[in-house]
Each structure stands twice: as structure tokens, then as C-alpha cells.
Write the C-alpha cells for this entry.
Amino acid sequence: MYGTVSRYRLKPGTEAQALALANELDTNPSPGYVGAYMFRLDAGNDEYISVGVWSDRDMYRKSAEDERQQQWFARFRELMAGDPEWNDGEVIWAPRR
């Protein structure tokens, strides 16, 4: 599996919109999408971390290059107070279900 971890700040009052967009993406995921989590940090200041996972690096990259995904992210980016910090990498452990 492969994924990305992003840290960002939302504009004040936009959390509900961000959650609605996350639900929209989860309802109609791109091929290879495994799942995602969004954390509201205890530090406050409208800071968040999101984690997204795909079946492998190729599916992650195809998703990132997909026009529908790019349009979705543009809408999500409008809710952010600045550019996110991105960290991509291979998932080397996950719980068995």
C-alpha cells in the first residue's frame, strides 16, 4: 500500500465544508483507494492532519493525476488557510482485519 499524510490549517468556520467534501470523496473513490482519516489536532488553531491510502504507488499517482481528483482538491484547497505540507510514502504496517 502507498499513501500520503498532509498537515494543513483550515480557514475558520470551514470544518463542516471540509467534512462534507471528505464524505463526497469517500462515497465515490478513485480506483485503488483504500481509505482515509482526518484528524483535528488538539493544538487548536484550526490545524488538521489527513491520511489517505491507496493499494499501491501507481494507483496513488493515477489518482493524483486524475482530473476529477484535481477538481476535488481545488475545492478542498479553497478551504485551507495556506498550502498543505505533504509527506508521501509506502505503508509498511497496517492492522489485519
The helical segments are 15-27, 57-65, 67-77. The beta strands are 2-9, 33-40, 47-54, 85-90. The first helix runs from residue 15 to 27.
